[in-house]
Amino acid sequence: MAGTKNNRRVQMTKLIIQSSLIDLLQEKTLNAITVTELCKIADVNRATFYAHYQDIPDCMHEMEQETTEKLLTIINRRTSPDSLKNVLTSILEVVKKRSAVSLFVLTNDPEFLTQFLTNAKNEILKNDHEIKTFPFKNKTEEHYMFEYCLNGIIGAVRYWLKTGLKESPEELASYIDKWVYGDEQLHFRSVVLRGKD
To answer: Residue 165: which residues within 8 A CB-CB, separation 6 or more?
Structure first.
């Protein structure tokens, strides 16, 4: 029982530190934030911070990894009865909940974003039998199509974050679903969801 309490305390402390970093990111760039001011905002001492993180970028990296794991879990969980809109809505809800981290990644960390897109694409394309019935001339065309679609979606999400998340996750998902569905030749919805209509 004591171990559980300690673990909860650690998780709560890390959450407070991460939330404080997110607040500071609204006003400053990551490189301009110091451990001292982060600790002051989080109301923890420097020893507590260093018990969990090496430095500010390490804290940011952990938040990025947690966000990516949540997004990839949604991608891995997709099932053929789900609509693209439902999958995108789930993804966008995570993005909105972690909007400061998401905006930082989408605007300031292209290397991390590239890694995430690559992981997402590999998850979607890992089973060849899923795409054999679709009209790609070859693997090259297939990969170009996914780069086009994934980067287009990322661009729309970046704009959504920069303009203040005015639309709900469901509304933005509806827009993207409509754009993708508009060209039936791509059949992107069916490929992403590992199923066919």
So the answer is: 96, 99
Cα–Cα distance measured from residue 97 to residue 194, given in angstroms and rounded to the nearest whole number = 27
Dump pLDDT digits (tens) for 60-113.
989 888 887 887 777 666 554 456 677 788 888 888 888 877 877 777 666 666
The identity of residue 71, as a single letter, is: L
pTM of the model: 0.64
What is the secondary structure of 121-144 as a DSSP string? HHHHHS-GGGTTTS--SSHHHHHH
